[in-house]
Amino acid sequence: MFRFSIALCSLVAAALLIFVSDQVSADGVATLRGEAVLNGQNEAPRMMPFINNDIREARNYPEQPPVIPHKTDGYIVDLNSNKCLSCHARSRTGESQAPMVSITHFMDREGQFRASVSPRRYFCNQCHVSQREVKPLVGNDFVDVDTLLLNRAKQQ
Amino acid sequence: MLNFIRKYWQVLARPSTSIGLGVLTLGGFVAGVIFWGGFNTALEVTNTETFCTGCHEMRDNVFAELQTTIHFTNRSGVRATCPDCHVPHEWTQKIARKMQASKEVWGHLFGTIDTREKFQDKRIDLAIHEWTRLKANDSLECRNCHSDESMDITRQSVRAADAHERFLFTGEKTCIDCHKGIAHRLPDMSQVPGWQ
Question: Does the model's pTM come out above 0.80?
Fold first, then answer.
């Protein structure tokens, strides 16, 4: 009898779960989990390759930290070493032909320019990241300021 | 003491009276084979990853770090073990390195790097040893697998191809000059040329 009631309980629970997940999709609202039930596992999305062509991408707005046009896996940036700076530091750019870290990164919080990258700008991958060939997860209708001005000029 | 040595020297210098020449030469030959074989077997045993990671200094520090790098896991499933990079393959060089390694046994027995903190403090010295060795032998252990002749730079990224063409093929630099810290974490690099 006890075993039977356990089976019944789990059946009811499963039915409830299916009902709940149906509800979610019916509303058109779902989390990143998608349709997966709570105790289930989503199929992991494929890992897409890094863009590694060294072609610089245009920035969407002037203040945007430029994205990295190459792979950076295995590049360690920590207290001991900064792999990025072994090419992008001022003194290294002659040999590496890499773009120099922007001068704004030499500025400390008082606005004083230091000899090299200021500690608060040291962790490159807080702002600059490598890109993968993936479709954006959500839509985006961002237009840059040039397009915005152009559109307004057209309207007037 | 001197008497003792003299007594044994006399035994060794006197021709044998009861053992035949055949037994002596054959016995000597067989014993030689066994000793030489045993020596080489023992040498090979110390040249395995199981042996290297038998000490917690290696297992918990450098071996743990290696496991996150491309020399341990990669798309083709070929991997480097400790001696592939850290022990010369050629016999004379190998024996020389093994003799140096006796200092590492000393270090293990007296706990020179038996905690993570001691290891971190010592890491710069240990790293400099390896960089110097690889610089001196033109990155021989790297080149045992990665040879210039087999390196097809058209299959590399533009950046990598350019760097190899300018610095590697001209002989201006050797592998270790640029590829430091590819298999283990780095020490404080602020004093190392080319690093910040």
Answer: no
